[in-house]
From TrEMBL, chain A:
InterPro entries: Signal_recog_particle_SRP9/14 (IPR009018), SRP9 (IPR008832), SRP9-like (IPR039914), SRP9_dom (IPR039432). Component of the signal recognition particle (SRP) complex, a ribonucleoprotein complex that mediates the cotranslational targeting of secretory and membrane proteins to the endoplasmic reticulum (ER). SRP9 together with SRP14 and the Alu portion of the SRP RNA, constitutes the elongation arrest domain of SRP. The complex of SRP9 and SRP14 is required for SRP RNA binding. Belongs to the SRP9 family. It is found in: Cytoplasm. It comes from Nyssa sinensis. This is Signal recognition particle 9 kDa protein. GO terms for biological process: negative regulation of translational elongation; SRP-dependent cotranslational protein targeting to membrane. Residues 5-66 form the SRP9 domain. It comes from the Eukaryota. Residues 85-94 have a biased composition (Basic and acidic residues). GO terms for cellular component: cytosol; signal recognition particle, endoplasmic reticulum targeting.
UniProtKB/TrEMBL annotation, chain B:
This is Signal recognition particle 14 kDa protein. One of its GO terms (cellular component) is signal recognition particle, endoplasmic reticulum targeting. It holds the Pfam family SRP14. One of its GO terms (molecular function) is endoplasmic reticulum signal peptide binding. InterPro entries: Signal_recog_particle_SRP14, Signal_recog_particle_SRP9/14. Gene3D superfamilies: Signal recognition particle alu RNA binding heterodimer, srp9/1. SUPFAM superfamilies: Signal recognition particle alu RNA binding heterodimer, SRP9/14. Residues 93-125 are annotated as: Disordered. GO terms for biological process: SRP-dependent cotranslational protein targeting to membrane. Belongs to the SRP14 family. It is found in: Cytoplasm. Heterodimer with SRP9; binds RNA as heterodimer. Component of a signal recognition particle (SRP) complex that consists of a 7SL RNA molecule of 300 nucleotides and six protein subunits: SRP72, SRP68, SRP54, SRP19, SRP14 and SRP9. Residues 93-102 have a biased composition (Basic residues).
Amino acid sequence: MVYITSWDDFAERSIQLFRADPESTRYVMKYRHCDGKLVLKVTDNRECLKFKSDQAQDAKKMEKLNNIFFTLMARGPEVDTSEVAGKEQMEQPAKKGRGRKQ
Amino acid sequence: MVLLQLDPFLSELTSMFERSTEKGSVWVTLKRSTLKSKVKRNKMKTAGEAIEYRCLVRATDGKKTISTSVGAKDHQRFQASYATILKAHMTALKKRERKDKRKGAEADKKQKGPKKISSATKASV
């Protein structure tokens, strides 16, 4: 499987893939700390899209894609995601306290 | 595979990240799912019941697998906490030079500090 080099290309195609078949598409994130590598994969078992990076700035872009996928998967593939990407930054501080993680 | 509540899942994910710093990887999978068997789904479909989808989140470090499911109500809270965890643990990724100011400044200190007054700063610290 060849890695997609352009982030925008990857993000757009992975969302398309999910919308085409929401029930069998999964989104996998792999993080390897010792090598400082991040690999993202979106597949519906027929087509596989992968993206690889070692840049911190790509982790930020990934955060937006995470939010898009959370929204699409939890709320449904019809939901408009255009407002999701920008929203998460404001949501964060307010919701943090309730997490009770550490 | 253990299906956890949101908060236990997040804290277990945190310790997974902490355990895999020396070696190993962490995988996190998101999938849209009903959490019901195919038979049950088909029954519900024929009965005309509405099928509720949730976002199934699975995480593994290769040894242990944990999972949780996120519904429409709590996905925003979950994704915010999840993003915070990722940000806190994905520290091995390379930073672009002075791309963002806060992190850029930190890196500058580390690089330039020892050059200027190398022995003096070390001694004082």
